[in-house]
Design brief:
Blueprint (H helix, E strand, L loop, with lengths): L1 H12 L3 H5 L8 H12 L3 H14 L7 H5 L2 H12 L7 H26 L14 H17 L4 H20 L5 H31 L3 E9 L2 E9 L1
Antiparallel strand pairs: 1-2
């Protein structure tokens, strides 16, 4: 069981250097699909029994709340690097808009699935599938990789390691099944990719419009707000 645990931890924490080093001009689907398919394969009673055994043998006395903070660290790191003046792929304003768009996508998806499926968590509470913490962490890590990964692959590696650690701690805290964090990771990555793909198209159409649109994202540690103004 310990070998299985080590393999799972390695897979979740592995930094996607190939994704980070060459930002795509189109939607990258392989990583989120791989996470989603693996999640569905593990969504069964035998996998849950195996995880319970690993938890009882290795983590029954483990408890931490650091994962509640760690989920936001890739996004916070993105903001910090932006303020430091480090060269990024997009302008600060565009990064904020992509962030807001992607956040709407992953939050709506994870919360919708949580209440639609209503899976019981390992600790007996409700709304387990998928993991919102994992989605948040991998969403932030993917945006970080897309903005800085080409020139600074170590930043992307660090972001994905933080995201993987968040996912691991959710299982170590007995808050989520492996299928939960894998699906959450897939949703987070897909949301970042979709937002990055759609935003230039939305921006282009708005710029061609005769109407004057003004979209102002406001990002703070505890909230994300967007204001949309229309002038005519």
């Amino acid at each position: 069981m310990k070998i299985k645990s080590i393999i799972l931890i390695f897979c979740l924490a592995f930094p996607f250097k190939n994704i980070a080093q060459k930002p795509a001009k189109k939607f990258r689907w392989k990583a989120p699909v791989a996470f989603g398919v693996t999640s569905l394969l593990l969504y069964n009673a035998s996998s849950k029994d195996a995880q319970r055994t690993i938890y009882n043998n290795n983590f029954s006395n483990f408890s931490t709340k650091i994962d509640d903070i760690l989920q936001y660290t890739p996004a916070v790191l993105n903001v910090g690097l932006s303020l430091s003046g480090l060269e990024a792929k997009n302008s600060r304003q565009d990064r904020g808009r992509i962030f807001i768009l992607g956040t709407v996508i992953y939050v709506a998806t994870t919360q919708g699935l949580k209440y639609a499926i209503d899976e019981t968590r390992p600790n007996g509470t409700e709304h387990s599938f998928p993991s919102g913490h994992a989605a948040t962490a991998f969403f932030g890590a993917t945006l970080l990789a897309k903005e800085y990964g080409e020139n600074y692959p170590w930043i992307a590696a660090g972001g994905y390691t933080l995201a993987g650690t968040t996912a691991i701690l959710r299982m170590a805290n007995n808050k989520h099944w492996a299928s939960d964090v894998l699906m959450g990771a897939g949703i987070g990555i897909a949301s970042a990719e979709i937002a990055s793909y759609l935003y230039p198209k939305i921006k282009s159409k708005l710029n061609k419009s005769k109407s004057a649109w003004n979209f102002e994202p406001q990002i703070a540690p505890n909230h994300y707000v967007a204001r949309l103004n229309y002038s005519f």
